[in-house]
Amino acid sequence: MTKVFGDIYADIYDFIYEDKNYNEECNLIEKIMHEYGKKTGKKILDLGCGTGSHAVILAERGYDVTGVDISQGMLDLANKKKKKINKPNYPKFVRGDIRNIKISQKFDVVLSMFAVLGYQKENADVLSALKTARCHLTDNGLFIFDFWYGPSVLYHKPVSRIKVINIPSGKIIRVANGDLNILEHNCTVKYLAWRIKKGCSLEEIEECHTMRFFFPLEIRFFLESAGFELLKLAAFPTYINNPSEDSWNVIAVAKAI
């Protein structure tokens, strides 16, 4: 896979997504755990944990969380973030590839949030990532993840977006342009960002992220091939409605079998 989330982009990541409601997403994760009988499940593995936002919140709520990410820049920020929690059970962060990492323990719940599965472009990569989730779960353990929903991506199609974020040292301007590949079921998003510091110094940051989108039968097939039973698909983050052409992101709940 092409390297993404380099150190410079990682450094501005939390500013770009400062409006993402991680607390509410963790509320939903807990709701799903309770809904499917994991009220006492305390051990959580977060595959593709990024800067650790979900992991830190869940650790604050008393869960034993281990986060995995391939980007050292993102993990450096996650390790700084965890030191701010006033709890003895800090989350643990490990560098690794979610397609093949092996951790010597089992978990009650595995997460892979913020469309991490979409970074696995090839079928073999998708299956490897799902098998990683499966082999780290206890019997009947839950796998919770979200993904770009194919019918919605094809219906709305990616558009150019500009985001301006004020930060203490100045501002960040980010432009995102998506190039849709219908045959390959992916969209390559070119991110171009400028960090403008007070005093007019300018830093340019560029990355390309190729994101795969998925269809319901495809998700079911991959999950069953990796040893899961698909329990639910729902619009994300609301979780109330079934997926539709207006559900760019969909959350999936699966059980290890």
Automatic annotation (TrEMBL):
It comes from the Bacteria. Keywords: Transferase. This is Methyltransferase domain-containing protein. Gene3D superfamilies: CAC2371-like domains, Vaccinia Virus protein VP39. It holds the Pfam family Methyltransf_25. PANTHER family: TRANS-ACONITATE 2-METHYLTRANSFERASE-RELATED. One of its GO terms (molecular function) is transferase activity. The keyword Transferase applies. Residues 44-141 form the Methyltransferase domain.
